[in-house]
Amino acid sequence: MLKNSLLGQIDKKYLLLLGWTMIIGVSILFYLFPQSGLFFLLFLCSLLVLYYLPVNNALRYLAAAIILVGIMPLVGMQNTYYFDVITQVGIYASLAIGLNIVVGFAGLLNFGYVAFYAFGAYLYAIFASSQAANFIPAAVAHFPLSGHWFWVFLALSAVLTAGLGLLLGFPVLRLRGDYLAIVTLGFAEIIRIVFNNLDKPINITNGPKGISPIQPPELFGMVLNQPIHFYFIVLVILVLTIIIASRLDSSRIGRCWAAIREDELAARSMGVPVVRMKLLAFAIGASFAGVMGVIFAAKQTFVDPSSFGFMESIGILSMVIVGGMGNIAGVIIGAVGVVMLQLNILKEFSEYLGQLAAQGILNIPSQVDPAKYEKLIYGLILILACIYRPQGLMPASRSLPAWLKKKGKDQITNGIQEDKTDVT
Amino acid sequence: MEQFLQLLPQCLLDGLTLGVVYAIVALGYTMVYGVLELINFAHSEIFMVGAFAGTEVLLYLQTYGYLTGIPAPVALVLALIVAMFLSGGMGVLMERIAYRPLRNAPRLVPLISAIGVSFFLQDAVRLVEGLWKNAFYLTAPSIFPTSIQISANLRLPVKSMVVMFSAVVMMLGLHMFVTRTKWGKAIRAVAQDRDTSALMSINVDRVISLTFFIGAALGGAAGTLFACQYSLISPYVGFILGIKAFTAAVLGGIGSIPGAMAGGILLGVLESLGAASLGIATNGAMGAEYKDVFAFVILIAVLILKPSGLFGEETGEKV
Fold it and tell me: How far B314 CA sits from the closest chain A CA (Å)?
């Protein structure tokens, strides 16, 4: 393979030097030019470089922590726009990791993932705004609830959406792959339509107008409503999500999921409790979405049904597919790529085209504004990804269990794992 | 109750008109599923392309003043032919580009590329219409404006009759084609067993292309009829209709052609009745805005209770 032969030729020292120079250089440049979109992209790329850099894990995590906890907030203080973007990336990355549990680990195609996200968002929105006063008498509780309840709702939403996932999962998990996809799609549409119309007879969701304002979270009396607060909330949740998902993947449960995904019949005959494991995947995936929904509602301070359409489900699904089903790092890259495409690249590109048009170099009608044709580009990416990289940018590889890994440890020299299979 | 009985005839008629449109679109889903075991998610966009093509033809005839010169049925047939060929061609192209390379891939992969095609077509049509007409919502000229008042509670618009008549002609034509011709036999053979039909010197690729062409052409025709009946179309009109047509195909038993026809009509009538009675039953608290929920609930119920549908064969899982 190219990578291996390159590694063989170039001295590892130079590779390390190059990597660190890039990471540190880009961080400094990004700090000096916080307005530049290009450096922001390079900054994200440097995290990817860090992921591949042949150093030991302690150093890697330390560097990642310095970048994410130190440098990013420093830049974000100067330009809150990138704070918003990276928070958005974090929310979608967590959602994609959650969906990845269902689609990538257990192999159950879920087109209605956004329903759980919507449920979580509405759960917090209704009780953290004056909306709940419409159906709960003031004698019971006074609404809106204070921001301290945010933390309670994070847990509550995780539990309730998991329950909702079980409720949906029970009847439908008997269905084969593509039927399951359609049913989950139908379920998500039902949820959306219900939220859209539940402003009568009792006004619960305020219908298409949406709910606003929603209380921001509070911690020890401090109101968390600045972008930096949400950045850290999302960062903590994202790290937790990554840890939970990767621990699940390498656990007994994860191996059961992989067995079901590869061959359900074989798994069943080997004694894997197929139904229970599928339900578990569904419920865990759902609860991730529920938690992110609460954060989304608190961050936006506004929810309405239009944020939870089919398009959103497909957006999250495409992050999983493009990044690499079943691979957590891949899914995060997918999320970064898709969100950046949506929020940053297309927008900058259309601004650039607009500048060209203003200078009279290029004459393009406003209908061809690339920012409006997100779906067209999504569609193309999905088709091309399916044809050329059906496994995603970073395909999942099943790692060995710990006791087997120990045997292979002597093959791992200085952090570079030699790929024995390439020799043959 | 009395109120409901008064509404009943009109509901049935509206439901029937909607139902035949569902039925023709459902045929496309069911045929493709029959030969490839693939839910062609982009079929709803084929329908949409057909609606736009037909409407554009009618608008063209209108702007150049031909619409008053030639009889309305001729104009409709012209629009239908253009729409069918355009949609059919699109269907064949779609199969060639997005599905054929994935024929041996895991089942989920073509499903996702189908969604890619669907998104691509939606925005592509929007882009083309935006550039051309400066607006991507079109209003089809009404070519059958008259209607017949049968009784106090029932009005029969001529366009509904035209839609139903054309739909029945197409379904009969398809039925004859599939049961009486050599190509029809080939389609049935491929649906039954692809490998064996290849051994029997059937050109499987060509049969699959043909299936896509026919299914897509029917979808395109349904689009044109839809535009005639409901006038306003947008690039996003296909999504919800596609899901409902798919529901109809599942309801009738996916893979079964008569099932798709029956399922479509049944779903149309059920939906129309459901939307009307829900408002009356809840005293106006819940109304027609829940009619889409109705279709989804039917879909979920059918899949859970009787996944093989009304006309489908009970098939065990292949090991």
Answer: 14
